[in-house]
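pasting for ref
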Amino acid sequence: MTRPTQLMAAAASSRDAPCLASRVFMSDSPEKSNGGTTETAFGWPRNFSDNRFVYAVISPRARGLSIGVNMNPDRFCNFDCVYCEVDRTLPVLNLKLDLNMMAEELDKTLFLVRSGKIREHAAYRGLSEDLLQLHHVALSGDGEPTHCPNFVEAVQTVVHMRARPPHSFFKLALVTNGTGLDLPPVQEGLRYFTSDDEIWIKLDAGTPAYMDRINRSQVPLEKVVANTLLVGRKRPIIIQSLFPLFLDQEPPPGEIDAYILQLGKLKSEGARIALVQVYSATRPMAHSDCGHLRLKALSQISQRIKAETGLRAEVF
């Protein structure tokens, strides 16, 4: 029995257990080479192959294969999260998203997935059919996608591609820290999103002090909350909350209290929160003082969210 198959057979049924995709990519060994990618104890990183802007990744929160569009090849982000995987000390190769190149790479990657030829890549050869089904195309990448200078044009390009043969419809997911959701170009771009598409908004903190400690943001917490309400009152949203072990310390109990109060306030003020994703750092990080929070702590946070706010929450 292969390693992925063993892990699948051992999957637990608890909703507060990490989802299957995250387990498949946890290794017993600290590091192991696998066909050009690196498998680590944190899971597999994004795989750009020979592309500049489009990558593939097995994502726990997508529950399988996600194709990503790197909206910020310049690595600009107004957050500097302690758990970020992006190494901003490396030289920047592309200052701006090239729409024509992105479309060509996305077309090629979609073909690999739809045709099954993705299995010819060693990293995906032994995976189950379920994990290799495309779950969404994510607008994400090495920075904050809502600050992409050609955000509207990027959305239009991807939406046009899924509307024409040979491609069938695929879901879009905007993965954002929420700071640019009120920008006019972003509001215009979101008009192209259907009811099947998703917006994932980051909320890692309940207080400004903890947000400063973990996200090290140039934007205040109240701005993130206001933008979450702006979008969440119009359409369902997903809250993505990463809780790291930072400097060997878990998030303080009082911070978890404040975070859950923020969720409750968002709900009471009209935000249509479809899901709260509770997870920890799962990929190799640029900061060595950040680690993965134990599963028990994540499960307790998830259980409190459900009990105290009535929102749906899952651990990944």
